[in-house]
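Morning!

This is the sequence you dropped in the shared folder:
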Amino acid sequence: MEMLKILIIWTLIGGVKPQSFPILKDLHERKDLDYLLIDLLNVVTRDQEVTCVAIICDEVYLNVFAGPLFRRTARVPYVMTVVEDYDDLLSPNFVTLESLRAARKEGCNVYVILLANGLQASRLLRFGDRHRILDTRAKYIMLHDFRLFRSELHYIWRRIVNVIFIKYHKKIIGVAKSNAWFELSTVPFPNPIKGVFVPRRVDIWKNENFHYKRPLFADKTSNLNGEVLNVVYLDHVPSVVVTKNNGSNKIGGVEVEILHTLAEKMNFKPRPYQAANAEIHKWGQKQANGSFSGLLGEMVNGRADVALGNLQYTPYHLELTDLSIPYTSQCWTFLTPEALTDNSWKTLILPFKLYMWIAVLLVLLITGTIFYGLAKSHMNLQEYKKLQRSKKSIVDDNDEKPGLYLFGEIVNSILYTYGMLLVVSLPRLPVGWSIRLLTGWYWLYCILLVVSYRASMTAILANPAPRVTIDTLKELVESKVTCGGWGTQAKMFFEESLDEDTQKIGEKFETIDDPLQAADKVAQGVYAYYDNSDFLKYISVTKKRVFKDSNQNNTNTTEVFPRKDMQRNLHIMTDCVVNIPISIGFHKNSPLKPLADIYMWRVIEVGLVEKWLNDAMYSIRTLETKEDEVKALMNLKKLYGAFIALAIGYLLSAICLIGELIHWQFIVRRDPLFDKYALHLYYRNKNKKH
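The structure's back. Tokens below.
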């Protein structure tokens, strides 16, 4: 059994005597109000799960709680607040405010408000609603007062709908069977209040008994009886997708499908509309006069009941509206430009990485040196055998050293080793089994290396050139592009972050209103746009389609191609800056939210949200696939590397030719032993000297 807990502020119970207030003398003497509250609280605790009861009263009604009320009601915690008759509850003092906060912290879901001054009660409701000090979805028991039903308070009764107004009717003098009685009424929810507030009677309490015995706090949101709810929406893929149809807007998207489900289950008719100047104000921001524009302005001003527009589940939005449970989580990142660098000139070296090329070069040098060493060893062996012979016959070098001229010099050795690497056969089979065995195994190595190189080269030539993109927040910080997005809230998010890279993004973050204009700046390579990945995919595909259509419609090719060369491909950054939950908005302290959350949870569990998300993005993903489809075709641009290699070969050959001519003219011809008519004798003598 829960312990009885009573918190009394300002005074003790029983401190005020009933004789002090002659206007309530009959009411206090008969104890009718005491017994009515006892019956009401017992009915509520019997039919509902009551966690705590908050009592707010003044001196006039304090004696109501001095009788048997606490003994004859269920033992639940009570938090009691007693206020002075001069207190301004639109700005309560510290003690009263702490008492109200204690009631909210304890989770009190029943409020008993007995204030003789209706203006004081109305100001309390306004304060509690504005600062969320009172739980507007709790059960309320209040005194009936016409000052509570003024037009400027009608918005309160769209939020506090589980309320019972107590109206006292005196005994008619001169009528024998006439007794005092109480009328219990409530707000006419879900029927809208039009001009004059007319409460709806629930029951009559007379002679310590309820007359009709109707449910006092029936659920008013399960069936809204076909009432029309104003739904403000903002075109933002994939939450809301607006398409033009014969001059009218047809809306679809994930949140629209959720809205139709809620409308069917809760029996209401949505009336969708856009806020004034939605293209400019979008979600809206706080203006200089304190009001809000755009979608949030419609919610804050109470003109809309539901808001659709990809609302992020953030403290900023929670302060202004009520948000449903998140139906999805979106990756928020940047739309960045791709680099225009062309690496086709590196085609010949792309198949292998740097370390692979180093290994190939080292193997070439080491193998060429080994070939040279083995050839020299074999030549020395032949010279040794020649000295041992007794015959002194002249032996031709070519017959003496068949095949050794291939690797007899270090330059030739490296050259023929390099030729085998390019799968060029040797002009003659070398002698010496050591060289022959090494040649065979080196050929196997060359075959494996060449096959790998050719396969990688084929893939590079068949596939599109690799894209140089920005995929991390660090790369974006190090780049020179300016970052931006919609609204000052996004800028504040980056500026107030504890991450150093994120703060640097905030320093160069600029706000922009038009996403297509932002896409143009991204295509120019000077901007990165911040939004959710699905919307970035949408504007990326839209930008490509608009650019393609403009090129097809433009007949002046001299203007089209330069513009095309200046355009960069758009790329969505792979890393997410943050994953943000997304919700549907309701007006502040909306009574529709609890039941709507239950239905939304069921929709999420059965996978309908994922299905609707795929439907909303299907056409965009289809267009994106068609744009990104690349066939394995060869073009001249992919062969830039081959032409560059050929050009390098021509250049080196020309340099060598010029060097040889210079050597011939200035060194060979000026030699005293040079004889142009007997060149073979000149070179024979030259070789003997060496």
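Headline: The longest helix spans residues 354-388.

More detail when I'm at my desk.
O.
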